[in-house]
Amino acid sequence: MLYAHTVDVVREAEGALMARLPEGVLMRRAATGLATECIRLLPAVYGARVVLMVGSGDNGGDALYAGAALARRGVAVRALTAGSRVHQEGAAALRAAGGRVRAFAGSDADDSDLFGADLIVDGLVGIGGRGGLREPHAGLAAQAANAPAPVVAVDLPSGIDADTGEVAGYAVRADVTVTFGTHKPGLFVDPGADRAGAVRLVDIGIGPELPGASVLRPQPVDIAGLLPTPGAEADKYRRGVLAVRAGSDRFRGAAVLAVGGALRTGVGMVRYGGPERVVDQVLARWPETVAAVLDPRQSTDLEPGRVAAVVVGPGRGTDPGDADELDAVLDSDVPVLVDADGLTLMSGETGRDLADRVRERSAPTLLTPHAGELARLLGDVTREDVEVRRLEHARRAARSFGCAVLLKGSTTVIAHPDGPSVVNPTGTPLLASAGTGDVLSGAVGALLASGVPVVEAALCGAYLHGRAAELVHGGAPVSASDLLHGLPLALAEVRADG
Ligand SMILES: NC(=O)C1=CN([C@@H]2O[C@H](COP(=O)(O)OP(=O)(O)OC[C@H]3O[C@@H](n4cnc5c(N)ncnc54)[C@H](OP(=O)(O)O)[C@@H]3O)[C@@H](O)[C@H]2O)[C@@H](O)CC1
Ligand SMILES: Nc1ncnc2c1ncn2[C@@H]1O[C@H](COP(=O)(O)OP(=O)(O)O)[C@@H](O)[C@H]1O
Ligand SMILES: [K+]
């Protein structure tokens, strides 16, 4: 598991440790770790050309001290400063080691040092950065982006918000980010995560000072430990029965995809209920389904003992009858996953306040909106607001509805009113195609029915779904149906890694 802490928490932990250590020790540890990573990226050390982009704070100080260490190894180091101040001791150390320090001349002409560099180090701003990069920082960063050398970001790519991953203006795009002490949430969540490249953590000794993390990012081994393994005594009822209330005459495929997502993730039985033509189609693709023609208002097969969890909403419709069905499903005391049309019904546009029904539940509920659905559920933000501050809005929804929320999109994040948020490390933009969300709802539903706790089920389902997309065609486009072939590959990989 990887852990991330917010800036306030990092500063407090660093403060506590610095009070016990001689001045400058933490910065020297950070700079040593940074220099080591730079050396790994250089084809040869002696004679290599490294350019440091240096802002006015301690982030620039780290870059300067690392530059001094490189210069002592025979690297030609040039520091280009931006801003009114420079870390004096760092600049002196670099000069003493044979490096040069000068102010960035501005973006009117290409800087020849930058364009001749073998490696560029981004020490413009770190956790002290606020908002989009100002000038001359932004102009310098833009030139670095056009130069051929790889870019190593110090602590985080300058211009991304450390706590949220928001990019408010221009931001550095790094090949590698060397971060200190702990990860920052903005390195896990897009759009920030997308700018960070490969992230390396350097231990500067603050670990014992840190409280529990606010954001977690699991590794394959963590997923393997969470997945259910049927024991010798298993039977189909003990493995879990999932009820799927998806699909309608208009959207028959949603039912087929959700049922398939569940079956391919592993569950004892899927009970499908829906219109006759949809039942026929589900049975044609998945004959193992226990399917019944169902009027949406007939929800009598949901008593505990008959099903262990319910997925409701994908392609189901938003008619009054569908609202009655959602109401009845929410009345059950088994875990319920609400997706798509179920979320539209919850957002009140149809005149029924089903959100309160979610708040009243004692069994777990999981909402699985995309950014547009989450914006509608929250009511006071736009889709774009959600997209730039995904963690914050998922957490708000979790608090507001008193349940777990899985926010889909470029980074899938899972929030719960209690405990840290979790980000899913797998997936690809190729997932952005119709019907992939239906497969996800089935996959997560299967895990809920198997007895996996709600946050873990959401995480494992999202992980396998993302990995299925990555594995199934080796990077070629995937359709939602393809994910059903990818899920067994993802499960096999996770079990092999675990
Ligand atoms: N604390 C520790 O123990 C350790 C900390 N360490 C390192 O210190 C880093 C934090 O250093 P920090 O606090 O000095 O802040 P930093 O990120 O350099 O930025 C502040 C400067 O940037 C400027 N600035 C702000 N926004 C801007 C913008 N949008 N565009 C342009 N400029 C902007 C701002 O200017 P101002 O707004 O004040 O005019 C100010 O001068 C941390 O990330 C890690 O690398 C490690 O050595 C380990 C030990
Ligand atoms: N840019 C992206 N990068 C990675 N995954 C994405 C991206 N856009 C969408 N996805 C994923 O694709 C799926 C789309 O689900 P959803 O929006 O519900 O589509 P649908 O309703 O058509 O099934 C989700 O799993 C989501 O996380
Ligand atoms: K930086």
UniProtKB/TrEMBL annotation:
AMP binds at K408, G409, S410, T411, T412, G437. Keywords: ATP-binding, Isomerase, Lyase, Metal-binding, Multifunctional enzyme, NAD, NADP, Nucleotide-binding, Potassium. Its cofactor is Mg(2+); K(+). PROSITE patterns: YJEF_C_2, YJEF_C_3, YJEF_N. It comes from the Bacteria. Binds 1 potassium ion per subunit. K(+) binds at N59, D122, S158. Pfam families: Carb_kinase, YjeF_N. (6S)-NADPHX binds at residues 58-62, 126-132, 155, 254, 315, 370, 438. HAMAP family: NADHX_dehydratase, NADHX_epimerase. Catalyzes the epimerization of the S- and R-forms of NAD(P)HX, a damaged form of NAD(P)H that is a result of enzymatic or heat-dependent hydration. This is a prerequisite for the S-specific NAD(P)H-hydrate dehydratase to allow the repair of both epimers of NAD(P)HX. This is Bifunctional NAD(P)H-hydrate repair enzyme. It comes from Nocardiopsis coralli. The gene is nnrD.
